[in-house]
Amino acid sequence: MRPIADAPVTRDGKVLVLAYDHGIEHGPVDFDPQPESADPEHVFDVATHPAVTSLAVGKGVAEAYYPSYEDDVSLLAKLNGTSNLWMGEPDSAVNCSVEYAAEELGAEAVGFTVYPGVNGEVEMFEEFREVQEKAREYDLPVVMWSYARGQAVKNDTGEETIAYAARLGLELGADIAKVKYPGSQEAMETVTRMAGPTKVLMSGGSKTSDREFLESVKSVIDAGGAGLAVGRNVWQRENPRRILDALEEVIYEEASVDEALDAAAPKP
Amino acid sequence: MRPIADAPVTRDGKVLVLAYDHGIEHGPVDFDPQPESADPEHVFDVATHPAVTSLAVGKGVAEAYYPSYEDDVSLLAKLNGTSNLWMGEPDSAVNCSVEYAAEELGAEAVGFTVYPGVNGEVEMFEEFREVQEKAREYDLPVVMWSYARGQAVKNDTGEETIAYAARLGLELGADIAKVKYPGSQEAMETVTRMAGPTKVLMSGGSKTSDREFLESVKSVIDAGGAGLAVGRNVWQRENPRRILDALEEVIYEEASVDEALDAAAPKP
Amino acid sequence: MRPIADAPVTRDGKVLVLAYDHGIEHGPVDFDPQPESADPEHVFDVATHPAVTSLAVGKGVAEAYYPSYEDDVSLLAKLNGTSNLWMGEPDSAVNCSVEYAAEELGAEAVGFTVYPGVNGEVEMFEEFREVQEKAREYDLPVVMWSYARGQAVKNDTGEETIAYAARLGLELGADIAKVKYPGSQEAMETVTRMAGPTKVLMSGGSKTSDREFLESVKSVIDAGGAGLAVGRNVWQRENPRRILDALEEVIYEEASVDEALDAAAPKP
Amino acid sequence: MRPIADAPVTRDGKVLVLAYDHGIEHGPVDFDPQPESADPEHVFDVATHPAVTSLAVGKGVAEAYYPSYEDDVSLLAKLNGTSNLWMGEPDSAVNCSVEYAAEELGAEAVGFTVYPGVNGEVEMFEEFREVQEKAREYDLPVVMWSYARGQAVKNDTGEETIAYAARLGLELGADIAKVKYPGSQEAMETVTRMAGPTKVLMSGGSKTSDREFLESVKSVIDAGGAGLAVGRNVWQRENPRRILDALEEVIYEEASVDEALDAAAPKP
Amino acid sequence: MRPIADAPVTRDGKVLVLAYDHGIEHGPVDFDPQPESADPEHVFDVATHPAVTSLAVGKGVAEAYYPSYEDDVSLLAKLNGTSNLWMGEPDSAVNCSVEYAAEELGAEAVGFTVYPGVNGEVEMFEEFREVQEKAREYDLPVVMWSYARGQAVKNDTGEETIAYAARLGLELGADIAKVKYPGSQEAMETVTRMAGPTKVLMSGGSKTSDREFLESVKSVIDAGGAGLAVGRNVWQRENPRRILDALEEVIYEEASVDEALDAAAPKP
User: Fold this and answer.
1) Which residues of chain E make contact with C173, given a CB cutoff of 8 A?
2) Do E163 and D28 make contact, defined as CB atoms within 8 angstroms?
3) For residues C57 and C18, is the Cβ–Cβ distance under 8 A?
4) Nearest chain C Cα distance for residue A245, angstroms
5) How many alpha carbons fall within 13 Å on the CB side of residue D9?
């Protein structure tokens, strides 16, 4: 962890990552509810919303689209990922080197998934080491997608599991840890306390009602979390800018959920 | 993906790859229906047809024959491949480095097979990363042979599977993705949409009637695909130039299948 | 082994390492008995006690907190470690390179765990080789956490096992070997004799009564050991400085356990 | 494949490799029928016969003896090999680097075994790639010992199998492929046709009658093969020079088998 | 193999290696019969005996003690080794690089164990390759501990097995091969003949009567062997110099066993 208050990936110390690595992780089926979301251009447009501090995409999408958006979007290059056609132990291919992300893609941060608890934990941690140390050479903040899995993980959203996942972010040198929501603000307080200065992002998960969604985000912020990484719950919507308006209120403006819902309501 | 409109591997944005890596992948048995096809010189001669934008061969064949054809043929160095004597999980040996392809063979593009869904997916994706990043240093377009396989793949020509395979081409940074034909123009439209700016080639498969074959190629073009990669269906013929004449009409001249068949008919 | 009498990691040839790698090895549950121990700042403060010659932490914690303590604390970068979510054969991920520890973290010593007897012994020894040789380039003392495990190890605190573990420290080139307490001063004499000039540290283990704890430390010193590496038994206390006062007496001042207990008693 | 007409490993475009890697592959038992064959000096002497274009030995034998023979013998450094004490899947250790062969041993060609069809095919092909590309840097011809093995290979001397093995020599960039004898001149014609410009050597195999042996060599030459790689069938003889005289007639002088037998008969 | 007649590891072309890697291979239990043997200083003192041409120790012991003995002892750095706590397939960790042995330890020769016939044979041979080639750069003689093991090895002291082990020393480029005693001078003659110019050392094994021990050494010398590598049979004795006196007679002075026993008898 290093001070990243001034890094483009933050706004007033808070973070909203728009995640769009679903084309590799899940495939086209994720775009079905909102077909235009299959088009990266559509999602890059969404990412120009001021609430979004960073857009997380893989190498190929960045290579093809970021040149047209580099003034308006901050790129978080997601370095590893694997298709869901693969039925083996959880693992993740390193699809982009830090050098390539920094020098060729123009990334302003890098992201890397680790699965503490899986058979390949040792290998994933060691890959993370190389990424983290190389990213420091380029002064790129490092975001760890930290998802505990494997035999020993009975409840992957339990407070203890999430707190451990976030702590590993701190221990291994991540600037930001993206973890699942542990169910309550109180649990999230434990999580952010364990992460120390490593910023904690709630992973957006699937679509719920707007109120429920914003309340969970609000509880993250109130628990000392830095914000949210969200994908489908934004770009599977017909009007993604409205929910981003609401998230902007909650994350950066200390607004209540009601105020945020008002701000994002369709103007008459 | 990067703009490759001017690359030798394309003609008016379209692509016809003549594939001739069967000597490694299948062995001499593939040459039986047309014995002279065992002779690479014969196939290099076929590849001088203007419809062919690129000839895909392995290192050894390129090394031995390309020096005599470099003015008339554009070389796509196929970098990996494995014999079919091997009974293990699908995998593919990297038989040629990008450096060697670029500096010693004079390749103008490189090709690499990945099998999303197999046990070695992670390793194949990581090998692809190295190839892709090194190819960028040499400004060589990268063609991904993308064939989903493994336990989770129930139907390897289903629209969803092919669309995922093509999307992985985009996500991982391929300029061109070679995929199986998903059965209809409508399905192919989904596939090309998922691939975004990554050009999509239909993989030629086995011999069918000329009409059926040209109709499937036509449907690829009409669906926004870039063209075709074809092997046996060309060089196992007695007169491969005729079918190339027909393909030229369909791929580059927006001709109908009937017009193409006429163009390729033996002149009286 | 090389002369390290003048290295910051020692004081009068003795050593007291405060170990704080529990966030990775065990997770937040270790901080429950003393919640403020979850905060690395709290433990760095404890480590400013003059009895502590070195604070052992992982990369991320060092990166975030050591800049504020580098005048008052000597950093021992613990280079490998693994979560206890992982159920496989004992192994340990290399989470920090020696180069990074030396150049970026400002470490004054490095620590590395090996598990002689496990399936991965060969690999761990080879990783240790690389660490040891690289550390020599930076003149950093090398501390080996040496814990025999695996099928052949029936009693992991038996004299023979611990003596072997310590001897491996000497054989493989560690300056300091951290081993379990073999149960008696006599056994510890064998252990230190087998280690030759490699300094031997008793691993602190879990909380016992202060008298029992100090007596075991005293017996290590009397047996020719260099001191102690201790974690929870210090920072899980309400007043860790008192036990450090007592340890200071025993380790550096040749005090008796009674004298040490007096010195550390609350002043009226 | 590259033009090697002028390489020391050939004579008039033909090749006779004397193979002497039996000390590693089979051990001393192979020397029993002719005890002096255990002495490399004896075999180097045999290799000075003008019929022999190259002597294939491993690193250690080359290092010890080649300095005394470099004016009279052309060295083919056999780079990989494994003892027959090993009961696992066919594989072969790389015992000599190309750099060492070229710079320290003074080799004029390198040899490498691959076993298409075995579990380690992918790894062996990749090792071959590195060898082949490095050998090109030193302008050293590459000889592939190509022996199909594994579950799918029912008949390892069948025409189809041998033809595939030879074709892989061409596909992977070998200048010369050493394969088993497929049983007839007709089958050998298929084999050499599939190998294109890659020269094909028949692997000598065990002792037969001189007439049978020379007839098979003659059929290789008549089928367009380049010659022979032979070991025991030469140096297990009491008078190896006589059979080399005969081979010289058959391989380089287009002699009939009868003429060759006459030429090699003991002079009265 | 290269001429090493002038190397410090030999005396008049003969070799007596004092081996002291037992601390890693067997652990402290080996020192029990003569407790002071646990102290490397004691063994370094023994190694100053003029009969000893080289002392074989691991990295850590060399690092700690060799600086005080470099004028009186010649260091053979034993580069690999593994604890006997490990129950897996025979294998050996590379604990010291050649570079480190040459540049930091001041070694005058390097030693490396291979186990022909084990599952890891291929890997061990390849590690040996790297060691051998790197050692050549530093002009360091290479000693191979060559012990055939594994399923196919029914009798690990049979003549055929030992002869194969010694031959592998020659084939792979070792200057000296350390093998088990094959039981008789006649068998040893086969062994040394198979090794060619690679010097053969008998591995000392366990304690026997002095006469029996010297007779076996004598038979090695008479069979053309270079000498002996011996450990416990020297340093587990109360007066190791006496047996070294006797060995000196047998190995370097062509003395009979009776003469040697006289020379080494306690002076009245």
Assistant:
1) 59-60, 63, 95-96
2) yes
3) no
4) 33
5) 28
Tell me the C-alpha to C-alpha distance, in Å, between residue C256 and each of B59, C221, C249: 77, 11, 8
Q: Sorting pLDDT into bands at 50, 70 and 90, what band is B87?
A: confident
Query: CB-CB: which of D123, D136, D150 is closest to B85?
Result: D150
In the residue annotation, E154 being an active-site residue is answered as no
Question: Are residues E148 and D85, on separate chains, in Cβ contact within 8 Å?
Answer: yes
> For the CA atoms of chain E, what is the radius of gyration?
17
Question: Tokens for C264?
Answer: 């550390």
Candidates A82, A100, A85, A190; CA nearest to A145 is A82
Least CB-CB distance to D86: which of E121, E136, E190?
Answer: E121
Is the distance from CB of A221 to CB of A249 less than 8 angstroms? no
- The more confidently predicted of residues E246 and C267 is E246
Q: Residues near B139 by Cβ (< 8 Å), separated by ≥ 6?
A: none
What type of residue is C77? A
User: Two tokens at A176?
Assistant: 């930001």
Rounded distance between C-alpha atoms, residue E17 and residue E233, angstroms: 12
Binned at pLDDT 50, 70 and 90, residue E184 comes out as very high
Disruptive mutation site among E114, E130, E171 for chain D (greatest number of D CBs within 10 Å):
E171
The helix (run of H) or strand (run of E) holding residue E68 is helix E59-69
**Which H/E stretch holds residue E211?**
helix E210-222
Inter-residue contact B116 to B146 (CB < 8 Å): yes
Residue of A91, A94, A104 with shortest CB distance to B136: A104
ipTM over 0.90: yes
Amino acid residing at C18: L
Distance CA B81, CA B104 (A): 19
pLDDT score of B268 = 63
Q: Among C14-18, D151-155, E75-79, E231-235, where is mean pLDDT lowest? A: D151-155
Two structure tokens written together for D146: 């190509």
| Catalytic site residue from E59, E78, E178, E180 | E178
Whether B69 has a pLDDT exceeding 60, the answer reads yes
pLDDT digits (tens, 9 = 90+) for A125-147: 999 999 999 999 999 999 999 99
Tell me how far apart the alpha carbons of residues A176 and A91 are, in angstroms, rounded to a whole number.
Answer: 21
- For chain C, the chains sharing at least 3 beta-carbon pairs closer than 8 angstroms are A, E
| Nearest-angstrom CA–CA distance, A184 and A202 | 12
Contact of chains B and A by CB distance (3 or more pairs under 8 angstroms): yes
pLDDT band, very low/low/confident/very high, at C103 (cuts 50, 70, 90): very high
Residues B152/B120, Cβ–Cβ less than 8 Å: no
Mean pLDDT over each residue of chain D, to the nearest integer: 95
For E61, nearest residue in chain C (alpha carbons): C171
Instruction: Give the C-alpha distances (Å, rounded to integers) separating E156 from B71, C132, E11, E179.
Output: 63, 35, 29, 10
Tell me the pLDDT tens digit for each residue of B213-241.
999 999 999 999 999 999 999 999 999 99
B contact test, residue of A63, A79, A94 with most B CBs within 10 A: A63
Residue of C nearest to A148 (CA): C85
Q: Are D139 and D162 in contact (CB under 8 A)?
A: no
Write down the pLDDT at residue E51.
98
The residue among C83, C94, C114, C123 with the most chain A CBs within 10 A of its CB, best to mutate, is C83
Best CA proximity match to B191, nearest among A65, A85, A28 = A28
Q: What is the CA radius of gyration of chain B?
A: 17
Please answer whether residues D96 and D58 qualify as being in contact, where contact means their C-beta atoms are separated by less than 8 angstroms. Answer: yes
At residue E264 the predicted structure's pLDDT band, cuts being 50, 70 and 90, is confident
- For the cut 60, the answer to whether the pLDDT of residue C17 exceeds it is yes
> Any idea which architecture A15-264 has in CATH?
Alpha-Beta Barrel (3.20)
For the stretch A67-121, pLDDT in tens is 999 999 999 999 999 999 988 889 999 999 999 999 999 999 999 999 999 999 9
